[in-house]
DNA sequence: TATGAATGAGATTTCATTCAT
DNA sequence: CATGAATGAAATCTCATTCAT
């Protein structure tokens, strides 16, 4: 029932359709290298029509970023059962990064485009209140929460500032993704990248872990294998 | 002595003049957002004149990147006395990053532009042999050498692969710089950024240090103060 | 009927409008001396708009060349009734050249621009298989066919190689046109040019005719008069 | 003797030096595709210096054209002994074209650049009195003279107008050369080109010969071999 | 709602020519 | 006499965005 509802639903579907095309293009050409014309071609819509659904090219980028981070946050939260220690939880987060990249690499890479959306985000301490950047806040919150848990249960170094470290970690992780997003697609799928990511997370893991934790527990498993 | 030398010197000066203008622009607008016209306006030269001094826009970027990395490597090598332990040496490198940023912030930020020059570098494991990217090799070598020293003398975790970790660290450090380079100038000078960098390096420090090292030694001093 | 058809027709008309402007410019300034800006000025369109209708400047040149040669080939084929001897057919071809030039001088001159499109054509024996040059192939085929006819019926010199001679003749004829195309417009309309062309064709005619043919039959009539 | 004379001679030598470099460049890149910078590089002079010796780029082209035609005229006149029939003389002229091309191909090709110098020449009947075009007049005179000789001694068709035919022939011959001049160097040396030229001259030969002449005498020998 | 058409502004690069020294 | 330096003008092409229909 309701013409209005149908209209709204159809509009939403169109938006999604356009976004999907844009995502594919970003993954193919990089976030700054694709054009509105590219989207128009891919969707078989006219450029003018795109502007009926999105205010600007930037608005499209922002929404894509938003979607990607939401997806990531959801994905992680599903896997964060309350009985995990803080350290285990951190590993779940990092591990999710790796496995999401390994599984659905493409979609995930889109979390890396925030630089194209709003470069003043993570790095700017006071910048969290800005415009299109808020999309990163849930990711930040997620990480900060996990870090706090670890500080509380003693598995993470009590000296770290959860919020600051969360920002740094997120920044580093998305930086890597950002770089990956600029690589040509064929390079992007290489094992090398996955190893590079794992290496980075291992470093960060040891960086945040409590000194009391046995070093041998601070290795993320190779991607695509479930954590034991 | 004589006319020829003066000519050469003046030519060199004008190159530098143009480069300086370009640097300022990069710092203001980001490495990919400035145009030859911008440089022409800033220098009050014609676009054609710019091409007398540089083959292409890319050549300008490459030279700037080169200069910045060279300067960094020199700066660090001056401070790396042989009697330092590997861990101390790592701290010198990271510390140099911090103090260089604090001292000559702007120039240093330019080490972050390699993404604009050749985006396939660090992240691509086999990519070290490519084109304009070689300018990063000295930085990589420097870090790898220091890590090896630390593995040898037991102050760093023997499990790390020096070359791989060097690549990761360099990647992360330049990522941060790259992001900073995109910030508006006024944000860039904030203490927040410096703290962010220090935090990141502290994480990395603990990531690479041997588990036997006392955690309290793994803090970089706040920027602007010389390490004793 | 219908909007779509009208759109298509209008689009075609605007293409033609642009092409016409380009033709005029070529005729005024020469095929290599006109610029996209010139076309934009002439059509009162923006340069960007031109690129909506043609992929590149070269594409415009190619299309103009194509049109001109197609028109010539059609024109000649209409006049080549099967009962003509080979010699008569050759005279029809040459005569068409002359009368087309006399009648629709400007359009016809455009057959001479192939040099600007692809300079390696006719003169390069193996070059017939190349890129944008194929537009000349129908002209070549036409002439070769006619020559063969004449060799078969004894009105042309059996010693000539039809394909080779066709290439040479086409080359010479378009060379002349090419030169004419570079003349300032006022000179181009002179009777002198037409005489020059006739003279050339008369030479060629005697060059290919069988020695048995009476020399007095080997004169093309003055232009603008129909051959009976 | 005297300083003035030496100055003049040296100036002349410099001119020649520059011209030689320009010729080489034309042959490499085509008459319109080379730049003053190219000449400057080749001569190791500055662009400004070039303007001390030549008023403009066009002046250089004109002089090169002049030299080339002069050389051709001289070359032919040396071989035109008075006892030759007009027909034989024509064959000497055409043959010289062929052998000059075969021998010193490069220098000779330069006769084809007149289009770049002054496109209004040959084809414009009244154009002989113009500016830089006069360089072609000696060639025209040469051919006309030869044709007249043949008309007088009965070896050429009395119906032809020597001056008009001379202009046509010259036009055709230089057209071919002009096209050749635009070919990449490697193509230019092919036998195909020489054959093409020979074919054209054979056509012209039969076009101008008296009908009484035996057709079998109307073949130019293959290049590089002396006429029997 | 949808779009075809149009465009202003801008990107990089080239080149013949001039002029102060 | 020679030239280093400079440049105005031009060339091709791209792109996000607007608007009348």
What does this structure look like?
- The structure is a homotetramer of 228-residue chains.
- With 228 residues, chain A is mostly helical.
- Chain A is 67% helix and 0% strand.
- Chain A is built from ten helices and no strands.
- In chain A, helix 1 packs across helix 2, helix 5 packs antiparallel against helix 7 and helix 5 runs antiparallel to helix 10.
- Chain A is elongated, with a radius of gyration of 19 Å.
- The C terminus of chain A is likely disordered.
- Chains in contact: A-B, C-D.
- Chain B binds a DNA duplex (21 and 21 nucleotides) through helix 1 and helix 3.
Give the gist of this structure.
The structure is a homotetramer of 228-residue chains. By secondary structure, chain A is mainly alpha-helical.
Largest sheet of chain A: none
- Per DSSP, what share of the residues of chain A sits in E-state strands of 2 or more residues? under 5%
- The named CATH superfamily of the largest domain in chain A: Tetracycline Repressor, domain 2
Poorly predicted parts of chain A: 123-132, 224-228
Q: Could you estimate the helical fraction of the residues of chain A in percent?
A: 55-70%
Number of helical regions of chain A: 10
Q: Report Rg of chain A.
A: 19 Å
- How are helices and strands ordered from N to C of chain A? HHHHHHHHHH
Instruction: Give the termini distance of chain A in whole angstroms.
Output: 50 Å
What oligomeric state do the depicted chains represent? homotetramer
Tell me the overall shape of chain A: elongated
Largest interface: A-B, 45 and 45 residues
CATH fold-level assignment of the largest domain in chain A: Tetracycline Repressor, domain 2
Number of domains of chain A: 2
